[in-house]
Every structure is written in structure tokens, then in C-alpha cells.
Amino acid sequence: MKIIQGSDAVSQEPLAGKTVAVVGFGNQGRAHALNLRESGVQVVVATRPGSAGAQRAADAGFPPIAAEEAATRADLAILALPDEVQPVVYAGQIAPHLRPGVTVGFLTGFAVHHGLIEPAAGIGVVMVAPKGPGHALRRRYEQGQGIPCLFAVHQESPAGDAEALGLAWAGAIGCARAGIIFTTFAHETETDLFGEQTVLCGGMSWLILAAFETLVDAGYPPELAYMECCQEVKQIGDLIYERGIAGMMDAISNTAEFGAHEVGPELVDDETREKMRQILQRIRSGEFARRMQEDHEAGFPKFNTKRRKLAAHPNEPAGATVRSLLPWLAESPQ
Predict the structure, then answer these.
(1) How would DSSP label each residue in 217-284?
(2) 81 vs 25, 67, 105, 230, CA distance in Å?
(3) Spatial separation of the C-alpha atoms in residues 45 and 71, rounded to whole Å
(4) In the chain, what are the helix, strand and coil shares in percent, each to the nearest 5?
(5) Dmax (CA) of the chain
(6) Can you tell me whether residue 34 is helix, strand or coil?
(7) Per-residue model confidence (pLDDT) at position 289
(8) Which residue among 94, 204, 285, 302 is least packed, with the fewest CB closer than 10 Å?
(9) For the segment 268-295, what is each residue's pLDDT rounded down to a tens digit?
């Protein structure tokens, strides 16, 4: 695996005199636009007129413009929009207005890899995917640090400058300070979805809920169940983030570690591993992308039903009570 690391590891010269258009000013778009501008890059921001993003952009000193105008002006157009929204915006507002030879940048490989966006020949297509939320990307940049990113070239431009523009973009937002990791749109998309679904968002959340329900059904107070099965996840997550799994085990009590070795393999058994293989196959085949896009096009009826059901789970009021004991959480970046 090729990795570029160091604040001087990539040149920002390819962006000199160029205009970067950031389409969208949400969590990631804001961080990219601000970091690029503070690295000396000419940046314009496109948002929906009258939206909250437009107001945030204006407050940050970016007079918001229409996506069509941004595409016309861009040498590098970055789509900082939700995956499911990108195809319509790109087809209707971006692609018809791009000048020949420009480069389009994506923050994930999802839309391109699954064929929801099919860039025309004659433009460059690159991806810079920071491995962290926008507020972390911004905070680390302000501290003179950075977070790693995944980098890929899906399609080189006729002039052969797409890769250089993409690397300059990654360097200008601070990622080179930590590491630019070369990959492909396919690998980024498939591993990202798999990690989110099986561990980070899906697996972890439903394991927490199942453990919470087990304790409450056995007569334990909901607040105690929440503290033990959910609140303390951050402490363990931070240890794994800082030290790895073996390092985390070394930092906890012998009782906790002994129990982990006893029960972990019992919970994650061959049946669980087979389910993981099936989940990965659904991702790789495009089945997950098709289901999500179909629900989005219908107005997200299934998605919104699941959101409401989760918000009504007894875990939520118990969590609110516990979090009220920790007033500093209100100061954490959202």
C-alpha cells in the first residue's frame, strides 16, 4: 500500500491560480472550504439558495453561489453532498456546465463506483476521503496537524493533471501531515460500507441495544444499563483508537479482559462470520446501494420509519438522564 506522509510531501503548486468549487457546505464541505482557503487556494462555495448551508457559508465569508455557476468557474469541483443526493445534482447542475479538462472530486467513492454517476470522458475524477468527520478535519488543521485520507484516481484528465490536483487538494486540507493512502474507488466504498454496517454504526449500536434490553428485562435500572452498555463505549473506543485492541486489553482490569476472552468468541461465532460474508456480498454486488437509492427516490419511507423507531427506544430517555450528569458534553462539536 502506497502512503505519502509529511507536510511537504505533496506540492500545492498544481492549485496555484486555480479555482476550487466546493458544492455543499455541511460538515465536510465547510472543513474542506476553510482549510483550502487558509492554505492559499481560491475557493468558491455552492449551496441551495436560502438553505442553512448558504447562511453558514456566508457567515464564513463565502458568498454562496449556484451550483451551475460554481461548475462553470471550477478547475476542481468538489462534491461535498450526501451520497444519495449527488446523482441528481451532478447530472442536472454540475456536468452540463463543466469546462473540458477540469477535474471533479469526491469525498467517497459510493456514487461513482455504483454507477449512480458516470463522468464523461474528458474530465478528471479523483477522490479524497478523510478518515474522520469534518469537525475533526478542521480542528486538526487549526492545530497544525491532520487526519489521514484515502486517495484514488478514477479517471485521469486529458492533460494528465487530475492526480496532481487531487494530491494538492489532500495536502491543502492537512491530510498529508498524517498520511495520504492510495486506494481505489471500489475498495474505499466497499470497506467503508462494510465497516459502518458490521461494526461502527450497525453492529455496535444493535449490540448495545440488545445488551441494554437484556439488563432491563432482568430488572436492572435503565440508567445503570445505559451506563454499563453504552456510556462506557467511548472509554474503550478511545483506548482502541490510541493503542489497538491488544493495548486496550492491557489497560483494563484482569476481570474485564478475562471476560472479554471468554465471551467475545461466543458472541462472534461462525454464524456471525457467515452473516458478515453475506453482508459484504450485498455491498459488493450493489444490492445495498440499489435499496438505499430506491428508498431515497421514494422519499425515504423505510429509512424514516426506522429512524422514528430507534428514537423511541427506551435506551434514549435513559441516555438523556445519564448525559445530563455530564454537562461538558454540550460543548462537544456536533
Answers:
(1) HTT--HHHHHIIIIITHHHHHHHHHHHHHHHHHHHS-HHHHHHHHHHHHHHS-HHHHHHHHHHHHHHH
(2) 8, 12, 11, 30
(3) 10
(4) 60, 10, 30
(5) 68
(6) helix
(7) 97
(8) 285
(9) 999 999 999 999 999 999 999 999 999 9
Residue that is written with C-alpha cell 438522564 in the block:
321
Mean pLDDT, the chain, whole residue set:
96
Distances in Å between the Cα of 168 and the Cα atoms of 128, 141, 194 are 10, 15, 29
Running DSSP on this structure, what letter comes out for residue 158? Answer: T
In sequence order, what DSSP letters do the residues of 82-109 get, joined into one string? -TTTHHHHIIIIIGGGPPTT-EEEESSS
Residues in the chain: 334
* Coil, strand or helix at 14: helix
**Which helix (H) or strand (E) covers residue 291, if one does?**
helix 287-297
- The pLDDT tens digits for 185-237 are 999 999 999 999 999 999 999 999 999 999 999 999 999 999 999 999 999 99
CA distance 29 to 89: 15
What the block records as the C-alpha cell of 91 is: 447530472
Coil/strand/helix, residue 129? strand
pLDDT (average), residues 132-153:
96
Which amino acid is located at 199 in the chain? V
Q: Which residue has the higher pLDDT, 332 or 170?
A: 170
Task: Please state, in angstroms and rounded to a whole number, the distance separating the CA atoms of residues 74 and 18.
Answer: 8
Which set of grid coordinates corresponds to residue 5? Answer: 506522509
